[in-house]
């Protein structure tokens, strides 16, 4: 009996000193500091931070130049010319509103492109309603 009690006491000491392998975590925990520096993930991946684009406020530059036309690091924006140097069709472009389909000429290319675009939109909306 003496040997049995000694074996049991040794077993108790091992259990108390060394935890069971099933209870020990075998993976490293993420440090809290690294998680806060990382960008948050949305449904489609990391969320992009918005870039603040400087806006030109100088009135003389806004009147004489096409602001934002220079996309290179060196150089400057395009200088505006007098109206007489631009083609006549430029001043007849429709910038006010989209012309409805009823007002377009059925013999024009613009009419048929708009009709095709509307039909594609309608078909896409109808295909969303179908159940598989």
Automatic annotation (TrEMBL):
Organism domain of life: Eukaryota
InterPro entries in the cross-refs: Ribosomal_mL54
GO MF annotation list: structural constituent of ribosome
Compartments, as annotated in UniProt: Mitochondrion
Keywords: Mitochondrion, Ribonucleoprotein, Ribosomal protein, Transit peptide
Cellular component, GO annotation: mitochondrial large ribosomal subunit
Family (UniProt): Belongs to the mitochondrion-specific ribosomal protein mL54 family.
Identification of the protein by name: Large ribosomal subunit protein mL54
Species: Drosophila willistoni (Fruit fly)
């Amino acid at each position: 009996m003496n040997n049995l009690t000694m074996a049991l006491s040794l077993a108790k000491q091992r259990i108390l000193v060394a935890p069971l392998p099933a209870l020990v975590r075998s993976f490293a925990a993420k440090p809290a500091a690294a998680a806060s520096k990382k960008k948050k993930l949305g449904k489609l991946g990391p969320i992009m931070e918005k870039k603040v684009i400087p806006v030109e406020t100088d009135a003389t530059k806004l009147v004489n130049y096409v602001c934002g036309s220079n996309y290179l690091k060196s150089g400057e924006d395009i200088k505006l010319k007098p109206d007489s140097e631009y083609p006549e069709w430029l001043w007849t472009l429709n910038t006010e509103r989209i012309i409805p389909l009823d007002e377009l000429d059925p013999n024009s290319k613009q009419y048929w492109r708009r009709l095709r675009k509307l039909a594609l939109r309608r078909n896409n909306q109808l295909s969303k309603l179908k159940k598989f």
